[in-house]
Design brief:
285 residues; alpha+beta; Immunoglobulin-like; 3 domains; four-stranded mixed sheet; four-stranded antiparallel sheet; 2 helices; 32% strand; glycoprotein
Length: 285
């Protein structure tokens, strides 16, 4: 949710009989409602071995305003790398579920990489001049290794469409939060499921992936990972604009320094020429 490199959870709870006790809402336990669980550092003895814990946000006004929530999930509505929320709820007198879209207003100086693995159809030199890129498939595995701002090695992994039943409403792609580390991803590995009886792993590696980008992996053909292709798309953001402004400012500053030094050197050369001409005139006399 905040591209910090950890996983958040959005769940729906109802009465205490149907929900875990840690998610019990004592104010109104008879109403089914969606809540946000944020992945934070552990401050309890029970999670000391793991180092992380989920903190429940009971006071989310937007989520609390949606009664009888059935399903809650994350989705990048604006395609900017920041995960928004989609909540399905029941309405009295209607059989269809109502869709609610909530924008994530969280602004953090963090980076991300979005990866989608397609079904592996032809993407180049295809017959009949048709390029069927395919659709996302369930089961691919994505992992990256990089170095954070402190110089320590970090890695993270995620699966794409791990569940396809029971109204899962999962993301069609994988969003990996990088935190405040703006370094390139040293290695990014993508693997796909293999047919029964095949022992060789089907995975490929890409290096130097730019943060705040979207990588579309086309595993074609599936049996030859070396032939897989990837298309990288950069996501425009304010950080890119600020970086360009800063770069232009530095270049202008350097040009000003060069111009001043050149002007001073030209003045010194003119002074030396006048002294040489005066000395020559004095010697001639």
């Amino acid at each position: 949710m905040n591209t910090g490199g950890t996983v958040e959870v959005c769940v729906c709870v109802s009465s205490p009989r149907d929900s875990c006790q840690v998610l019990k809402n004592t104010s109104n336990s008879a109403q089914q409602q969606a809540f946000l669980l944020e992945n934070v550092a552990c401050n309890n003895v029970s999670c000391r071995d793991v180092g992380r814990m989920f903190r429940v946000h009971w006071d989310q006004s937007d989520l609390n305003a949606i009664p009888k929530a059935v399903v809650a999930t994350f989705f990048d509505i604006y395609e900017d790398g920041i995960l928004d929320m989609i909540v399905l709820s029941r309405t009295e007198g209607k059989k269809e579920l109502t869709i609610h879209a909530l924008k994530n207003n969280f602004e953090a100086d963090a980076y991300f990489v979005k990866v989608i693995v397609l079904s592996g159809l032809c993407s180049n030199d295809c017959p009949d001049k048709v390029k069927p890129f395919g659709v996302n498939q369930p089961g691919p595995y994505v992992m990256y290794t990089s170095v954070d701002s402190n110089g320590y090695l970090k890695n993270a992994s995620a699966g794409q469409l791990s569940q396809s039943a029971h109204l899962s409403l999962q993301l069609p792609y994988t969003v990996l939060g990088l935190g405040r580390s703006a370094n390139f991803l040293d290695h990014l590995f993508v693997g796909i499921p293999r047919p029964p009886g095949v022992k060789e792993m089907r995975k490929q590696e890409w290096t130097a992936i730019i943060p705040n980008s979207q990588l579309i992996v086309i595993p074609y053909p599936n049996s030859d990972p070396r032939s897989w292709s990837a298309k990288l798309y950069l996501t425009p953001s304010n950080i890119v604009l600020l970086t360009a402004v800063a770069l232009i400012g530095v270049c202008v500053f350097i040009l000003i320094i060069i111009g001043v030094l050149h002007w001073q050197e030209k003045k010194a050369d003119d002074r030396e020429k006048r002294q040489e001409a005066y000395r020559f005139h004095f010697d001639a006399m």
